[in-house]
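ok trying again, last paste got cut off:
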Amino acid sequence: MDKDKHNDAGNDNDTNSKVKVDVDTARVRARRNKPTRKIFDWISKPCPQDLTPFQKLILDADWDKSPLGPISTWPIQLKQMVLLVVQDHSPAVVFWGDHNAMIYNEHFRPMVGNKHPALQGQDPYLGLPEVWERFDELLATQRETGETILERNDCMASSKKHTSTGS
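nice, full thing came through this time. structure:
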């Protein structure tokens, strides 16, 4: 008899758990169906119409002249990193490949000053020789440890002249 009560109690708990899970799943689905942006993957074809000026600038860049080549040839990992970095509200940059070709977001743009937009997708060793030694140290550490790098309050001397157009 005690066995039956125990089994019944277990069944009630299982039923209650299932109901709770179903309710929680419904809430999660409701939240997921309310996007904060119309589209996250603005790199894919066809190109969405509601791009920011900075996203348009990245798509319109002549990537054939960069170490990365055309966007259509980029590995999915690079595309995903670019999508994440561009959405970041802090200055952020991806260094990719043997030439450390850099793709930075709009919040990083003031740090490169008048070298924007020409620096986008280029080798920073050539484009930022005045600060590259510091970046090179950071990247060497990252490659050794595999850790993400987050620098706060780091000074980076560069030419700060830039326009206020956001691109």
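cool. The CA atoms of residues 55 and 74 lie 16 Å apart. The chain has six helices and two strands.
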